[in-house]
Amino acid sequence: MGSDVFAVLSMLVLYTAFIVIIGWWSTKFAKKSLEDYAMASREFKALVLFGSVFGANISAVTLIGIPGGAYHRGWIMWPYFVTAWAWLTPLLFYVLGSRAWVIAQKYGYMTISEMIGGRWKSKPLAYITGIILLVYTVPYLMTGLQGGAVTLEVLTGGLIPYWLGALIVTVVVVYYLLVGGMRGAAWVNTFQTAVFLIGGLSIFLIVAHVLGGPAESTRAVAEKYPELLNRSKMPWQVFFSYGIIVSFAVALFPQVFMRLLTGRNPRSLKQMALIYPLGGFLIFFAMAYVGMWGKPIFPNLKGVESDGILPMLLANFTSPWVTGILGAAVFAALMSTMDSQLMAATTIIVKDFLVRKKESLSEEKTVLMARLMVLLLAVVSYILALGKFAGIIKIIEFAFAGFALLWVPMFGALFWQRCTRQAALISMIVSQAVLIALTVGWLPKSLCFGMLPGVPAMALGFVLLVAVSYLTPAPAAETKEYFRVIRESYEGGREVQAAGSPPAGSPAAN
Question: Distance (Å, rounded) from C-alpha 327 to C-alpha 245?
Fold first, then answer.
């Protein structure tokens, strides 16, 4: 092993050791209940809530996928992601989260499928929603392993091959999830958020410096690849549709939605939403430009090879010690999303499928079941990551659209009292089927009108939601309970219940 590789590995080992210690320390505050393991007893204040939600969202997409996409498409990757994401997504966090938080406190809900199924007292609706969430979460989870494996392979000059890099990332994340649960993950994510925000901006400044400054770096792109500085690589239809898909999808990522429910009160949620956009603007800007600047330096990368552009720039133009430190920032982003996705998928399976069928299980056995499920999902994701099925951006385009479509039934569940169970079910199934059919080519691409498949699928879903609701009998009185709870909370100007006390009807209250 050369001295350069030793320096890089030393920094990565130091970073890994630190997050393992945080995960271990969090066990001192743990309680033996699923409510605590999966939701940290809903006790987070604004700072940890911000770190938890931001860390759950900033992932391999940001530090690997965006530079890789900008390598081929140019600066447009920045507004491509943030035009709507940086202002509409935080707004949706609060609009959705404040209502969902009230309902979750009342009934002890943890997942999207519980929220939608509980609205109409429908187990089939909850099961179908849970299956949809898992279908999109597992491929998205796989991208974290892909990004971590690529980063380790490049930064170590191939000493750590792809398969071993993916295994290392899996083992570390699984450890602090098994011992610390949501609390451990959120504390680690808060640290990781600081690391990759500072590290991401440092990467931007250092790469710009070694390439002669931002102006010189951009001039080199303009001379050889002028198309990367205009919008020719991305039609307006794609630009517009991606803004819609991203902004709507993020709030319904199961890992983000769960964390919106872990705040101590709605005030913490509002404070988090106010500071959220700044981090997004900065990190997306930095990563898009770094990826574009890499094009003249490494001009012949094809397809998914461009996902390695950021670690390639670090390995070739910074000192080994700096490369190791900045590589840790990349790892922070990858792991912060992967851990939250594992926790979300585990909670969906345990809460919506297993515990629902075995309500006599003790809290200790339920937590044990959750830990075993974390391990099983991690193994499945690792095996899938070894396949290298597609580039990170291609995978998340499909997953983002699937999550965004869940706004159709969620709108009916929390914002429209007249919406019926049949409308929610039909609109959800048809919109998801249309998305898949358009993506794989079973329906002609011309039906997208130049946009991403998720946009026409979402439009059709909302049309069906309204049409079927008025064609079917109004929902029964007992299914309108959500709106009474929300109305009483808003009209009374009070918080339903402070975190720290288990919500009525939750397992911890019984």
Answer: 30
Confidence of residue 507 (pLDDT cuts 50, 70, 90): very low
How far apart are the C-alpha atoms of 83 and 63, rounded to whole Å? Answer: 18
Return the closest-CA partner of residue 150 out of 141, 140, 139, 161: 161
Report the range of poorest mean pLDDT among 10-19, 151-160, 318-327, 372-381.
Answer: 318-327
Tokens at residue 39, please? 């939701």
List all residues 6 or more positions away from 142 whose beta carbon is below 8 Å from its beta carbon: 381, 384, 385, 389, 395
Spatial separation of the C-alpha atoms in residues 461 and 450, rounded to whole Å: 19
Q: State mean pLDDT over 427-445.
A: 94
CATH topology of domain 3-392: Sodium/glucose cotransporter (1.20.1730)
Task: Give the dihedral of Cα atoms 150, 155, 159, 164; nearest 10 deg.
Answer: -30
Q: Tell me the C-alpha distance between 225 and 377, whole Å.
A: 42
- Return phi, psi of residue 13, to 5°: -65, -40
Whole-number Cα distances in Å, 389 to 170, 259, 304, 386: 18, 29, 10, 8
Sign of torsion over alpha carbons 472, 476, 477, 479: negative
Rounded CA separation 299/72 (Å): 10
290: Cβ–Cβ under 8 A, 6 or more apart, which residues?
Answer: 67, 70, 203, 204, 207, 309, 310, 313
Residue 492 has pLDDT above 70, yes or no: no
CA distance 27 to 180: 5
- Can you give the length of the chain in residues? 510
Q: What's the pLDDT tens digit per position in 381-425?
A: 888 888 765 555 566 778 889 999 999 999 999 999 999 999 999
Does pLDDT of 495 surpass 50?
Answer: no
What per-residue confidence (pLDDT) applies to 60? 62
pLDDT of residue 506: 37
DSSP string for 147-214: HHHHHHHHHTTTSS-HHHHHHHHHHHHHHHHHHHHHHHHHHHHHHHHHHHHHHHHHHHHHHHHHTT-H
Dist CA 216 CA 324 (whole Å): 26
Q: Which tokens is 344 given?
A: 């979300």
The DSSP-derived string for 436-482 is HHHHHTSS-GGGGTTS-THHHHHHHHHHHHHHHHHHSPPPPGGGGHH
